[in-house]
Protein: ABC transporter ATP-binding protein
Organism: Streptomyces roseolilacinus
Amino acid sequence: MTGASAVEATGDGPAAPKAHPAPGGTGAARSGHRALVGHLRPQRARITAGLVAGLVGSVLGLAQPLAAKRVMDDMGQGQPAAGPVVVLSLLVVAGALLAGLGHYLLQCSAESVVCAARRRLVDRILRLRVPVVEDTEPGDLIARVTSDTTLLRQTAPQAVSAAVTGTLVTVATVVLMGLLDAVLLCVTLAVVAFVGVVVALVAPRIGRATRRTQEAVGRIGVALERALGAFRTVKAFGAEHREAEALHRAAEEARRTGVHAAGWEAVSATASAVVVQVSFLVVLGVGGARVASGAIGVSTLVAFLLYLFALAPRIGQLVEGVGQLQVGSAAAVRIEQVEELDVEYAEHVEHTKNAEHTEQGGGAERAAHGGRRTPTTRRAARGGETAGRAPLDVAFHRVSFAYRPGAPRVHHEVSFTLPARGLTAFVGPSGAGKTTVFSLVERFYDPDSGRVLLGGKDVRQWPLDRLRASIGYVEQDVPVLAGTLRDNLTLGGAVPSGEELARVLRLTRLDEVIDRSPRGLDTDVGHRGGRLSGGERQRVAIARALLRRPMLLLLDEATSQLDAVNEAALRDTITETARDTTVLVVAHRLSTVTTADRIVVMEAGRVRAVGTHTDLMARDALYGELASTQLLDG
Ligand SMILES: Nc1ncnc2c1ncn2[C@@H]1O[C@H](COP(=O)(O)OP(=O)(O)OP(=O)(O)O)[C@@H](O)[C@H]1O
């Protein structure tokens, strides 16, 4: 991807929150059906095969009453009925086999539909722009990947099959019934028309209730994510009941709307059952009278009733299929809403389009890309790219930035130029905009005006994956991911040599931690690294960044967490790294700033002064005050 396309791929400002669905109406229902068809399209061949098998099975089923009539007529006339009996048996066996095959094919396509939807969603979510994710609720996104896609599986191909087969077989049955006796058919249709009216009235209500149920399921995810994300705090503050209340409310809402949907489904099912019973009685009455008057024979009435028997489940199937389509459409709308959120890479969209047609497996994924690079191969290449790269200079030219349109500006015409190599410390009061400098360099956000330059080139002209591969970033609240130490250290995809790994572990004093653990690098660090101490998490994050061999290291120093010995060791590590890498530190320690080659003092989103410690002590009052009061002494 070119730099230009990277720029085009990303929208200008933070996207409006879209993860919370708008209430459903006819428009929502229409777009739901469109979205559902979009999910089914890649599986159309298999779905068609399943439908055809099911249909042929049903047609064979339809021929059974005629064959039965023939058996009865032959026997009534005293003729041998062996031939028609064999035909009838074959029809029964072949019909059942084809129906089974059709069901299996539809199940297979359902699994593929749900797998493709999950892959596309996961891919999309991981590529979402940072401001977009900030505007959504992770728990709700998780519910869409897990719960809504499951609804797709349960409903989509079966619902389509039920609706299509149900319709065709109903029409065919009605035609055959008309051939047998038009009067009885008119009587039947008059009763059956009632079902059509009920279904038309009830179906949209089922769709709306399902959407509300899924929204409530999303809220359960949100509440759970909130509580588990700060589990210790919730416990320490005795907030379990309070948090549970939100979960209970959402669960209750899901139950209420689920019951609502079930109620409407019951209405349509009952209507169809009643209609079937009534039509039997009416056909028996009218048919009996017509047999008595000699208008039709007994065998015709029996065949007609057999068709009516066959029609009953078809009507039920049709009604159920329409209800299921509403459920599937509701899920498809929620999935589509995630797919409409802004992502960072244009090539990602291409990737997911291709993935849509792919089953699982890396080989298949590569094949779908026509041998082009997948994220996996890109990562591997990136690992190779990292070696022997020159450090990068960094410059801000009159950068102004607000996190959201209309929100107060966090940067006001920020300008500075930092040469390649060396250690630059950013200091300033809390909220001055220091961390925001890093976020703009990483392109988590784009400035409203001005330019951020890396290696002399606007960051918007860097291909985004290369930009980030060039940077080692250590956040203040260092995130350690669930998994092993090794997983965390190699998160960037680079595979370090044993020697390199040992060097970095030594520099960050993680070697002691690993030596202490029986499982070494394969030690499980727990959810969010909860089994490590704060200082260990910090060191894992620094080691992870160093293993990328970055051209620029961004270190958002934690305000606490490191003991004096580790603190001194890390200071030495940073100083050594700064010899051949550009290192930017948001500094909270005096010991870091005093060793820095230059210090940028920020205040209320502006650069106030740039200089060395001695220089700034002499000429900048704010810096003097910060140095004597706020900066921690290492
Ligand atoms: N994702 C965000 N969305 C909205 N506002 C934000 C976001 N991140 C930071 N801010 C706001 O931007 C301002 C600058 O934040 P920033 O994190 O850059 O400050 P800082 O100088 O690094 O502060 P500290 O030293 O406390 O970490 C603050 O007022 C903060 O509330």
In short: The first helix runs from residue 3 to 9. Confidence is low (pLDDT under 50) at residues 1-26, 347-388. The chain is about 65% helix and 10% strand.
